[in-house]
Every structure is written in C-alpha cells, then in structure tokens.
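Please check this protein record:
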Amino acid sequence: MKNTITVAAFFLLFATGAFAQGYGKSQYPDRGRENSRIDPRDRQDLRQINDLKRQARLRISDGIANGTLTNRESIRLLNELERIQIKERRYLSNRSLNNRETRELTQDLHILIRGIHYEKADSEYERNRYSQRRNY
C-alpha cells in the first residue's frame, strides 16, 4: 500500500513538473531580447550612450576608490547620472530616439564627464579608511 502511494505521489510530482515547463511557442516572444524592441537605426546611438554612461560610472568609482572625490561630490555626480538615465528611459518609452534626443543625451553625458574630471582635479580629498593616503 505504501509503495503504491509513493509511486503515485512521484508520478504526480513529475507529471505536474513536466506540464509546467511550457513547451512550444512563448506567449511573450520578445522576452529576454531587449534590443529586439528598439529600432535598428537607434542601436548604434544607444551603444554610444551606453559607453558614455559606463565611462562616467567608471570614473566616479575610480575617484571614490582613490579618494579624489569626496562623499558629497560622488553622491551629486551619481544623482546627475541617474537623472540622465531617467531621461533616457523616458525618451525610449516610444522605442526610438530622434536626433534631438540622442544629441541631448550625449551632450548631458559629456558635460557630466567633464564635471567628474573637474571634481577629481580639485584639491579636495576624501580621507577615510577606503581611500589611499595622499601627501599634500
């Protein structure tokens, strides 16, 4: 009796697992392929914008690690980068970028990168246990 119940339980367990796999065509054909929703002409522009965002993030993290950016400066710069990312998401809500939007995003990112350079070059240094000691 116990063996039959155990066999029936295993059968039900594996049968329901097999039906839950969802074989066949997906209900959401574009799921997992983010770029398929974007116009192919905009992909090059988005690649450039993503490279600029990556460069800005890298420079901010280097400034934090080296101690050349203070906590207040890094928070302000990261908030500015977040503002640019929100603007990009708003522009991409219609799945394409026009020339004005692309130009505005790249201009904002270039201004941010220049601001990061300026803040890293000024004479304020963060002194904490994570940054390297500087000789003044």
User: Anything to note?
Assistant: Residues 40-66 form the longest helix (27 residues). The CA atoms of residues 82 and 88 lie 10 Å apart.
